[in-house]
Amino acid sequence: MRGMRGLDPDLLDTVRRSVLAQSGPVTPARIAAAVQDSGRLLGTSGALAAVELITAELRGLGPLQPLANDPGVTDLFVNAPDEVWLDRGNGLERSSVSFPSEEAIRALAVRLVAAGGRRLDDSSPCVDVRLPGGYRVHAVLPPVSTSGTLLSVRIAREKTMSLDELEHTGCVLNDQRRVLEALVAQRRSFLVSGATGSGKTTLLSALLGLVPATDRIVLVEDAAELAPQHGHTVCLEARHSNVEGTGSVDLAHLVREALRMRPDWLVVGECRGAEVRELLSALNTGHSGAGTVHANSAGSVVARLAALGALAGLSAEATALQAASALDAVVHLERTNTGRRVASIAVVSHGPDGLRVEDGLVRRDAVANVSERGAGWDRLTALLGLGPTLESVP
User: Confidence class of residue 71 from pLDDT cuts 50, 70 and 90?
Assistant: First the structure.
């Protein structure tokens, strides 16, 4: 199926106007009735195909819906009418799906953003929204985008991968798994670092699924994506300002609210601003916690935290002291041509030069199924009491 090119644009426009002119939800029955009322002689198979295509255009992701229906697809990118890309976890692939025009991409982007309760137009050309069905949509209009409307869709699957599945796919090695399980069992606080699309949310969700059922997990996210398989989880989601520029609720405020909800585990889906101060403060007052952060390596988390602390008005020294006391470990992920991999598990400490994040267990290379000891090995095994169980690591 090549987008909407197999469908008469005039028929699509006629049905769209007919359906959207009526109040109430857009249902397949209403679309079928509008196709029939159009007076086109399509035949039974043609009418069914038209209803399917128009339903996807009006209710789902339009031409992208067949790609989103593939359970292996995690991301979709539209760069131009004939340039649609997808990610199944093994690098980007170009799709055969296409749009009839730039206007069709913009129409889809505007509709999706509107479905998320926000507005996409010249006054608001860059918008990020979360939609029912687990879709997170980001759209950019010209002239901010120099090549036309850009559309990015992140797909959150309902089923959260377990550590068993992550080990089976090679994302987590057996010795790494033992360390990760010990982090959760001993209520150690940690960050999951990596680049965009490296699997941070997937791994963190799997680890939170190991939290004892007697513990209460409070999630704080900009857009709800974490989905741990745990019986007592609640989520607070940030809210953007409305068209008048009021009504926003940021992550820092939500972290403070979460502390009033008696969390056993306080989790920030992504630390990228002043909320890092609130999280570190919370983890220094008896709470266990976790979060994700963008970084090039585990060691780079030091600079990343210093930058985020500066946004919150903290000095580099204050951030280092807070982080060294609040955090025990950093789990770093990498995205490779063969999939997503846990590259290292590092231990956090404070030394004469400030905050230190040292690799304790390191994957030998991006694709090898072998780990080796890093500079922080002794400190990591002492922290978790795992020395005897990991003696086979070279």
Answer: confident
Q: In what order do the strands lie in the sheet containing 190-194? A: 233-237, 217-221, 265-268, 288-294, 190-194, 329-336, 339-351, 354-363, 371-373
Mean pLDDT lowest among 34-43, 100-109, 252-261 = 34-43
Task: Tell how strand 233-237 and strand 371-373 pair up.
Answer: unpaired
* Residue 265 near residue 217 (C-beta atoms within 8 A): yes
Whether residue 143 has a cis bond before it, omega within 30° of 0: yes
* Contact present, 326 and 284 (Cβ < 8 Å): yes
Name the percent of the chain lying above pLDDT 70: 85
Q: What is the pTM of this model?
A: 0.77
User: Cα(337)–Cα(360) distance, rounded to whole angstroms?
Assistant: 25
Q: What is the spatial distance between Cα 145 and Cα 178, in angstroms, rounded to a whole number?
A: 45
Task: Classify residue 199 as left (phi > 0), alpha (psi -120 to 50) or beta.
Answer: left
Mean local confidence (pLDDT), 12-37: 67
3-state secondary structure of 275: helix
Q: How many CA atoms lie within 13 A of 390 on its CB side?
A: 28
Structure tokens at 357: 């994040």
Nearest to 256 by CA among 233, 285, 224: 285
- Strands 288-294, 92-94: pairing kind: unpaired
Task: Please name every residue paired with 75 in a beta bridge, in sequence order, or none if there are none.
Answer: 87, 154
Q: Between residues 336 and 288, which one has the greater pLDDT?
A: 288
DSSP state of 45: H
Q: How far apart are CA 309 and CA 336, in angstroms?
A: 30
What is the spatial distance between Cα 58 and Cα 71, in angstroms, rounded to a whole number? 22
Q: How far apart are CA 380 and CA 329, in angstroms?
A: 8
pLDDT for 127-181, tens place per residue? 988 887 778 899 999 999 999 999 999 988 767 789 999 999 889 999 999 999 9
Rounded CA gap, 355 and 91, in Å? 34
Query: Contact 201/226 with Cβ under 8 angstroms?
Result: yes
Which of 204, 243, 91, 87 lies closest to 152 in space, CA to CA?
A: 87
> What is the rounded distance in angstroms from the CA atom of residue 318 to the CA atom of residue 322?
6
CB 334 within 8 A of CB 341: yes
Contact 218, 263 (CB under 8 A): yes
